[in-house]
Structure formats: C-alpha cells, structure tokens
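Working notes for the structural subgroup meeting. M.R. asked for a predicted model of this chain before we commit to crystallization trials. I am recording the input and output together here so anyone reviewing the notebook later can reproduce the run.

Input as submitted:
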Amino acid sequence: MFRAGVLAIALIAGAPIAFHARAGGLTNVIGMWDTDHDGTLDLNENNKAAEAEFDKLDSDHGTLDMKELDHRVTRAEFVAADKDDDGTLDKAEYLSIVAARFHAANRDNDATIETKELHTAAGRRLETPLR
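Returned structure, recorded in token form:
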C-alpha cells in the first residue's frame, strides 16, 4: 500500500529522475530535465534537478543529514562536502557532490551528459542523489 501511494505521489508531483530511469529508460531522464531540448543535460539542468530533490527532502530547516539523504551519497562524500562540519549538508554542499558526480560521468568532457554517459557506472552514480 505504501509503495502504491509513493508511486501515485511521484506521478502527480512530476516523478523524480530515478523513477523515470527505471520506468522509461535513461533517455527519459534527459527528457525530463533537458530544458533547452538539445538531447543532453548540462550542469545547470542537472543542478535544477538536484535542487528540486534537495527541496523535496528538506522539510524542516534548510539542511539534510545522512538519515534524510537515505543513501543518496556516500559517507565519504558527505564528510568531504560538509565544509562547516555541522553534520548536515546545506544546498550548496549537496550540489557540490552532484557537480563532482556530473564531471565524473562526463567522460568526453563536453560539459553535457548524453544518454550513453548515463549508461556508465559514473552515470548511474550521478542519478543516485537525484532520486
């Protein structure tokens, strides 16, 4: 029952990237966030997706702790990004992790992510903090 409710909310609220990746293929990930319709995701588009996910997860105070992140980032990434050592990530700290994953997935260094790059291990890791 809980799963059906989550699915219904995802469909109504604009389904997160991970749902689209599983349901309709990785091309839909790009289609959902590709605001300039060039068939790729640039860092700006990727950050908008990450900001939306951060806002969805953050229901209380402008930061996320490891529990709220629910395995979207590794402990090492969390510690490295937590520049103020307060045990939480603010939006800028969270986006720094997403940016690092974006650059790791961008194998051809063209400042965009294509579908083929999402099919790599780094591409799948990029999708994780956006689900």
